[in-house]
Amino acid sequence: MAVRISSFGKYSDGREVSLYTMENRNGMRVSVANIGAALVKVEVPDRQGRLADVVLGFDRAEDYLENGCFFGVVIGPSANRIGGASFLLDGVECPLAANDGVNNLHSDRERGWHKCFWEAEPGEDSVTFRLKDLADNMGFPGTKTAEVTYSLNEENELRLHYHASSDKRTILNLTNHSYFNLEGHGSGSIEGHQLWLGASRYTPADAGSIPTGEIADVKGTPMDFTAAKKVGEEIDADFEQLTFAGGYDHNWVIDGWDGTLRRFATLKSPQSGRVMEAYTTLPGVQFYAGNFIEEERGKGEAVYARRGGLCLETQYFPDSANKPAFPSCIFGGEKEYDSVTVYRFDVD
Q1: What CATH number has the domain bearing residue 72?
Q2: Which residues are catalytic?
Q3: Is the pTM of this model over 0.70?
Q4: Fewer beta carbons within 10 angstroms: which end of the chain, N or C?
Q5: Is 10 exposed, middle or buried (0-12, 13-18, 19+ CB in 10 A)?
Q6: pLDDT at 207 > cutoff 80
């Protein structure tokens, strides 16, 4: 399985951005790019064997320099939200960009790793992207290095292996912000998709989407996906958590987390027959139903709109830096960050 390389446009400083495409014997194709170590395309067959690209994104690198919805990119050094745009580490206050009201979202909208140029090293069936982040950049202590490897196997498994380190104790919480639509990236709402989550608890949040610190049972609430149901079945229910976030945009606590790879989600499209199983070594997943996608043009002239794709962002919990009871996302020195997330595609 050789990796094909093609031109994908230019980075802001004029460097050439490449698109790296892996294809297995089943015809599944995955394309990734230097900018933001972005997952640009995931082409998989439906129950009739017809290929479609099931992730939202753009046809040119230049569009990823904007990308207000973070389509497909790797978020770092800290994914999701940090309350009050600051955290206390080893007695030192670390102020961050207040870029989501008074809070911090995805590290920094312009300087975050999703906007960076990552150096690429193609393998036989993989592509590894590497990045070095300057000391204390964006307010996060330490000089940090990171890499993410995308690999595709013959079982239609797309594997994302993240590794990062820092010369000082710091926050490291990486994720991929892909939006999935198993009917095809430009095919409209995902509210008809069926979702199962292996998560009987979640972290309720305030009106600014900052967890309160509580870990709550989903039973008896619209947050319960322990039995598969349509995403749209209760998404607009009169339930405070959904009212705050305009629908689903919350962290679920993965059952039985012990750092090993475990299945946490199954997503199905009854219309196309495509099925995606998701696995991770991390303790949480942000299920975001695309409530705030504003109409914009994506790949192949497709127009993306509200709830046109959903995210399953594996992660340490939001605001873990300020919530000592949550699993810690503090790394650095001899403690290096390492995680794996797998998306496996099939049909029913």
Answers
A1: 2.70.98.10
A2: 177, 313
A3: yes
A4: C
A5: middle
A6: yes
